[in-house]
Each structure stands twice: as structure tokens, then as C-alpha cells.
Amino acid sequence: RFTAERRAELHPLAWLPFGAGPRNCIGLRFALLQAKIVLAKLIKKFRIVPCQQTKV
What we know:
The chain contains 2 helices and no strands. It is mainly α. The chain has one domain. The longest helix is centred in the middle third of the chain and has 18 residues, at 28-45. It is flat. GO terms for molecular function: heme binding; iron ion binding; monooxygenase activity; oxidoreductase activity, acting on paired donors, with incorporation or reduction of molecular oxygen.
């Protein structure tokens, strides 16, 4: 079931963690909101600057 040959047979979009359509996961919006909050807190906590080798 978890072999490399089996993985090659699967469609790349076969795994949808929240499902799709009218019966999708009710926690979808909550999970995405949590991810946005965590990302915003990380960005706020650290100073993000390009390194000297980066051409801007």
C-alpha cells in the first residue's frame, strides 16, 4: 500500500486534506485562520532582511 510503485499510480491531486465540495471539513476555515495567525506572529517577532548577496 505504501510502496513506490503504488505512489506512482496515484493522481497528484488525490490527497485533499480538507476534502472538497459541499461536504468538506468544517474546520477548514478555522485551520487556515490559525495558520495565518501563526505566520503573522512569526513575521512580527523576527526582523526579515535580505542577505548581502541578494540582488534587490
